[in-house]
């Protein structure tokens, strides 16, 4: 055995130098296999239900070791990598938002989860947000008799936020500017405007909108993932990627976070970052509380409910673990491997070298075995390998890529109160929803080693243990949009057509697929248009053009596309990627969608889409809001005022 070990190690080092040229038969597919055994190298100290408890690191050295192991492991993460390329080409899909983006969402019963309204009783629209009463940052905010617009970031002379006096709704007047620009949150309780300006936060007293005063600022060493305003408290989710040379401490809000204060699961994950949830006093900018959890920036999402912040991370089984698991298990019989080859593979598994080196050497060992066979046996062995590895991985597909979930309570101290795990990876914040003490999460099971992708919806209880699921939606496709509304769910998958699924989630222990509709194109944002939730709008794309669709979901078993409108001159709308760019005027049965060449107002009486107005604002439209009977449309340098209902232009203002 010592001689074999020495030979294997020597070959491994040489193989690593020459790279992965020996691809051989390893880029193959997976099918069915009976009675699966665990993937070789899979970690088993998670609870039997698949969840993991979280604990803080014992030492800075343990933190450093954990991230070093994750870095070595990531060489083999081809299982989930490249999914978007495989699932949709540039001709099939528009450019998408980043992995942890905030696109998508949940609304109140009227389909408008507005982030604000006129504090003086005026009819003022707020940001289109995921959860009613929980505001999200955006470039346009309004309260009382003032609106705040930071859209100048789209222009070369960016760097200002314009304050508009809306006392006379029909004749708004720019009255002041703030020398900071980015996304905004407005805190009515303290008359504070928080400006997220790159790596810096600014707090302004806007009790007199015409004379804003800076009261605090805070630089950030970590990246800002997202922010929320809940009951007057400002919550931030920050992301720091530990430096490989000096990973401790990690950056938090203001001060550093000790590595021993960071929570981690009991198994190795694809950790490449630390996510810090922070509660900040918006009036002073002072940190109130924070907690940190290891995370992965690839295929993760962040969701905030009225009770908690949900942070996710990815746990993947590496290519080496899959290949070695097959070759030392079913592969021995499938391929007829000789004892010496099996011994070399088993010896390789025990070597203290990186998984990259192990993967390269494992390929070399098998290629040498193939080369030792005569031509007929060689061809038969390769075919057997293709079929066997396909069956092995396909049968274990939901164990190969999983998403861990950490719940950070915001009721009192920011404490990690539960953790769990589900197969697959989420799309974005829309993929999760908290309802009646349960968390629902929609995930894509990635295409891997040729095993086709599928899509699942899981329901988890208060302990984040899975209580029920709907599995196998959209085989060969991936999720493009999710919408949870009370006891109902809607999922859009896509590859060549758009399957639109309706789900019954009333029983968390027995969720059911209700109906399915296949249509051309796809939706990336879903929005309910009526109180009953029977009429749903889809915003997406077809043949490279912006597409708007209305869906009748009153019969949950038979959803119907009532109408569709293709914006033939538009290849892009921010609303496709960012729900905050969308405005729903339920009172007048209309909605606003910005696009690249113009902006558009549509009515939807009985589900019939009618273009009421094409608004030329000298370039891409940015945002719209209504104040009383006036609709404001903000562009790069202009503000246009329309009369609500008639949609006639009333005025224009330079910004």
UniProtKB/TrEMBL annotation:
InterPro entries: Beta_propeller_containing (IPR019198), UCP006425_b-propeller (IPR014441). Residues 105-115 have a biased composition (Low complexity). Residues 28-51, 91-138 are annotated as: Disordered. Signal peptide: none annotated. Pfam families: Beta_propel (PF09826). This is Secreted protein with C-terminal beta-propeller domain.
């Amino acid at each position: 055995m010592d001689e074999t070990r020495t030979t294997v190690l020597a070959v491994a080092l040489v193989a690593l130098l020459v790279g992965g040229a020996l691809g051989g038969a390893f880029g193959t597919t997976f099918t069915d296999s009976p009675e699966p055994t665990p993937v070789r190298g899979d970690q088993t100290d998670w609870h039997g239900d698949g969840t993991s408890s979280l604990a803080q690191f014992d030492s800075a050295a343990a933190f450093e070791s954990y991230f070093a192991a994750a870095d070595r492991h990531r060489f083999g993460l081809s299982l989930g990598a490249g999914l978007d390329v495989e699932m949709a080409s540039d001709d099939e899909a528009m450019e998408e938002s980043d992995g942890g983006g905030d696109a998508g969402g949940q609304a109140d019963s009227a389909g408008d989860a507005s982030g604000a309204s006129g504090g003086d009783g005026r009819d003022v629209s707020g940001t289109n947000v995921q959860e009613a009463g929980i505001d999200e940052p955006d470039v346009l905010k309004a309260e009382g008799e003032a609106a705040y617009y930071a859209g100048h970031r789209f222009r070369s002379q960016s760097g200002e936020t314009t304050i508009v006096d809306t006392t006379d709704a029909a004749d708004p007047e720019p009255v002041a500017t703030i020398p900071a620009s980015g996304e905004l949150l407005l805190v009515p309780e303290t008359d504070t405007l928080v400006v997220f300006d790159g790596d810096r936060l600014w707090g302004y007293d806007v009790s007199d909108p015409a004379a804003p005063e800076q009261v605090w600022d805070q630089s950030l060493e970590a990246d800002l993932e997202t922010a929320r305003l809940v009951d007057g408290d400002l919550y931030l989710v920050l992301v720091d990627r530990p430096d490989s040379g000096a990973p401790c401490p990690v950056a938090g809000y203001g001060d550093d976070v000790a590595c021993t204060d960071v929570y981690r699961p009991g198994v190795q994950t694809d950790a490449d970052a630390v996510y810090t949830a922070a509660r900040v006093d918006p009036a002073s900018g002072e940190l109130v509380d924070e907690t940190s959890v290891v995370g992965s920036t690839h295929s993760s999402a962040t969701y905030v409910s009225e009770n908690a912040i949900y942070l996710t991370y990815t746990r993947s089984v590496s290519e080496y673990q899959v290949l070695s698991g097959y070759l030392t298990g079913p592969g021995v019989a499938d391929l007829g491997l000789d004892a010496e080859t099996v011994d070399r593979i088993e010896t390789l598994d025990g070597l203290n070298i990186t998984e990259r080196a192990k993967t390269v050497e494992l390929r070399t060992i098998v290629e040498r075995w193939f080369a030792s066979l005569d031509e007929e046996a060689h061809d038969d062995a390769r075919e057997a390998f293709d079929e066997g590895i396909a069956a092995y991985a396909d049968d274990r597909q939901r164990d190969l890529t999983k998403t861990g979930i950490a719940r950070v309570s915001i009721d009192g101290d920011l404490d990690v109160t539960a953790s769990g795990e589900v197969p697959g990876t989420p799309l974005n914040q829309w993929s999760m929803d908290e309802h009646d003490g349960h968390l629902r999460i929609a995930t894509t099971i990635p295409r891997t080693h040729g095993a086709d992708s599928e899509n699942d919806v899981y329901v988890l209880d208060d302990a984040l243990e899975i209580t029920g699921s709907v599995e196998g939606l959209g085989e060969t496709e991936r999720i493009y949009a999710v919408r949870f509304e009370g006891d109902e769910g809607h999922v859009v998958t896509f590859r060549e057509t758009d399957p639109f699924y309706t789900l019954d989630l009333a029983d968390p222990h027995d969720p059911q697929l209700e109906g399915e509709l296949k249509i051309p194109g796809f939706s990336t944002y879903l929005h309910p248009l009526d109180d009953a939730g029977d009429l749903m709008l889809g915003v997406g794309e077809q043949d490279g053009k912006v597409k708007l669709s209305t869906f009748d979901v009153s019969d949950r078993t038979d959803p119907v596309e009532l109408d569709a409108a293709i914006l033939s001159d538009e290849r892009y709308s921010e609303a496709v990627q960012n729900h905050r760019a969308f405005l729903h005027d339920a009172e007048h049965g209309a909605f606003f969608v910005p696009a690249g060449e113009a902006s558009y107002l549509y009515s939807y009486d009985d589900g019939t889409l009618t273009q009421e107005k094409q608004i030329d604002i000298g370039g891409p439209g940015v945002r719209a809001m209504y104040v009383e009977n006036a609709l404001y449309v903000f562009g790069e340098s202009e503000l246009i005022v329309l009369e609500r209902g008639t949609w006639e232009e009333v005025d224009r203002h330079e910004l």
